[in-house]
Design goal:
The complex is a heterodimer of chains A (163) and B (428). By secondary structure, chain A is α/β, with parallel strands linked by helices. Chain A has six helices and seven strands. The mean pLDDT of chain A is 96. The chains are: A alpha/beta (163), B alpha/beta (428). At the A-B interface, helix 4, helix 5 and helix 6 of A face helix 2, helix 3, helix 5 and strand 7 of B.
Chain lengths: 163, 428
């Protein structure tokens, strides 16, 4: 069980998640401070560690559209947040998988801020409303990277196998 | 079954006789491009090699390109130090396709790659920049990836677990009216497809309008394909591709072209009659919020921006200069021009365009990403409005979430600079 900490509109861009002016900061250990920096109140609550790991950001369609900046994923991973969105832009989705940020695609999701939700292997259950929504399953090709714990360990294993 | 251009390229690069949409392949990478975010790529690359007992070695230095463009010259000690670290890595690893902050060989990555002949038809190109779709203009399968994925490519030489995308065929026919160009066409398409209408898909461009279009225009179209979510935009290589690579990029070796099979399978076909297009404007705060100029003409603008990887090429500057020549930028409006590369800047100097801009009151800036991404110059004040030839208008894009950005063609930007309000260049 985890709580929905914010519900966002469609087409949330990586400029919203991680504004361009902070792009000189690249290291995953340093990016979390700038998560949603232009949403000052939400950013302050994140930095104050108000939300426990596993807390859920609910997005609409096309979450993470725009730039390929990986900071948009590492900034959320730094707080161990989970993104559940109706659909996710390609590069953001791939970056999330590569960095081990948990993302769930749930096209019919209905959730409000404060709702407790449960994420199973194939569904999202909103405990506040009692409704269950099915997930779009990740292709097997992506599951391999997720199971390895991200693209770095996955690539490392390939390198070792090659010798 | 027949193959699309993307399928043919991926089959070749994966060493397979054929592939079709949905297959998972591991294509060899022909060119791997990064800009300042190479600093993060290097960090991730070194981490890949940790505890392997192997020496960190890039797979093929000649296939790696690094171009400084996002924050040039550096805006902060942090950026300058990142750039310094990248220079050291480039030198240590023998990466020759490196373009530092220079007035002659520097510029925006999506101009440098074509300009120097680094991209060829049929290539698999990856770049740590979403607008890497640009290079489909030369018939390549070219797509944006994150820094960690690039670290994996640097290590292995191929991209892991790539799903062959489905392709949408875009057929554009008809003569574009005067003062309507490639930018208007792609804005119109994004408005039609929506911002996620081509998510995970390839846009393959056909039709007589595309065949007649210069490589510069094709780059603008492929550049912005990502704004409809596309993995890649591709113009199949043709005579113009060969002309560009020979005459402008100085390529002398063989240039094989990849064309789709007649029975290639497309997800769907979108047809556009270019003769009916009018100048298009993407309104705040989404690139697919596209309206014909008549809907927003008269909107007051404080900042005009001409340049970027989308519209900072010589023909873009030429049309803007021709409109501004002998005129003045309106009081209360400022105008910034940033050519896409040092070479283009030099050509614009020789042809007098820079003089035209400066006499009109515009500020001509060095080549780079400049104000487009709101990093270090050309920021907007609260409640200010920009009209820009760049590619994104997300809230906060030009450095201030309390401002608005409209996107347009160079002709619209130039005509509007004179009046200080969004102005149809056909009325000049």
């Amino acid at each position: 069980m985890a709580k929905v900490i914010i519900v966002l509109a469609n087409d949330i861009s990586t400029d919203d998640i991680y504004p361009g002016r902070y792009m000189a900061t690249v290291l995953p250990t340093e990016t979390p401070q700038f998560a949603f920096a232009d949403r000052t109140e939400f950013n302050a609550r994140l930095k104050a560690r108000e939300f426990p790991p596993g807390s859920v950001i609910v997005g609409g369609e096309n979450f993470g559209c725009g730039s390929s900046r990986e900071q948009a994923c590492s900034t959320l991973k730094g707080y161990d947040l989970v993104v559940v969105a109706k659909s996710i832009a390609r590069i953001f989705l791939q970056n999330s998988i590569n960095l081990g940020l948990k993302v769930v695609i749930c096209p019919a999701l209905e959730a409000s801020e404060g709702d407790e939700i449960e994420i199973t292997d194939d569904a999202v259950i909103n405990r506040a409303t009692g409704k269950t929504f099915s997930q779009v399953q990740m292709p097997a090709a992506r599951k391999g990277i997720m199971d390895a714990g991200g693209l770095i360990p996955y690539t490392r294993a390939r390198l070792k196998a090659r010798g | 079954m027949g193959m699309t251009v993307a399928e043919k390229i991926l089959a070749r690069a994966a060493g397979l006789a054929s592939v079709s949409a949905g297959d998972v392949v591991e294509p060899k990478v022909d060119l791997a491009m990064s800009h300042e975010n190479a600093a993060l790529v290097i960090n991730q690359f070194l981490e890949v090699f940790q505890r392997t007992g192997l020496t960190p070695t890039v797979w093929e230095p000649s296939r790696i390109a690094i171009i400084f463009d996002h924050r040039v010259p550096a805006e902060s000690p942090k950026t300058a130090t990142n750039q310094k670290k990248i220079r050291e890595f480039v030198a240590a690893n023998g990466i020759a396709k490196f373009h530092d902050i220079r007035g002659d060989t520097g510029g925006i990555c999506h101009q440098i790659l074509p300009e120097y002949g680094y991209v060829r038809p049929g290539y698999v190109v990856v770049g740590t920049d979403s607008h890497t779709t640009s290079h489909g203009a030369l018939g390549a399968f070219s797509f944006g990836i994150g820094a960690t994925e690039m670290a994996s490519v640097w290590s292995l030489g191929y991209a892991v677990n790539i799903e062959v995308p489905e392709t949408i065929k875009v057929v554009v026919n008809g003569e574009m009216p005067p003062h309507v160009g490639a930018k208007d066409l792609i804005l119109h398409l994004i408005g039609t497809l929506t911002a996620q209408g081509a998510n995970y898909k390839v846009l393959e461009f056909h039709g007589d309008t595309i065949r007649r279009m210069s490589t510069s225009g094709r780059i603008a179209i492929c550049n912005m394909s990502v704004e409809a979510g596309a993995t890649s935009g591709i113009v199949p290589g043709d005579a113009e591709t060969v002309r560009y690579l020979r005459e402008e990029a100085g390529v002398t070796d063989e240039i094989p072209l990849t064309t789709p099979d007649p029975d290639a399978r497309y997800l769907r076909t979108v047809e556009v009659d270019a003769s009916t297009l009018e100048p298009q404007i993407a309104c705040p705060h989404m690139v697919d919020n596209v309206k014909p100029i008549s809907a927003v003409a008269g909107t007051k603008v404080q900042q005009i921006v001409i340049g970027s990887c989308t519209n900072g090429r010589l023909d873009d500057l030429e049309i803007a200069a021709s409109i501004l020549r002998g005129k003045k930028v309106a009081a209360g409006t400022r105008m910034l021009v940033f050519p896409a590369s040092g070479r283009i800047f030099g050509q614009a100097l020789e042809l007098g365009y820079v003089q035209d801009f400066m006499k009109a009151g515009a500020v001509v800036m060095n080549s780079g990403c400049g104000p487009c991404l709101g990093v270090h110059e050309g920021a907007l004040g609260d409640n200010e409005v920009a009209l820009s030839t760049t590619n994104r208008n997300f809230k906060g894009r030009m450095g201030n979430p309390k401002s608005e950005v409209y996107l347009c063609s160079p002709a619209v930007a130039a005509a509007s600079a004179i009046t200080g309000v969004i102005t149809d260049p056909r009325n000049n």
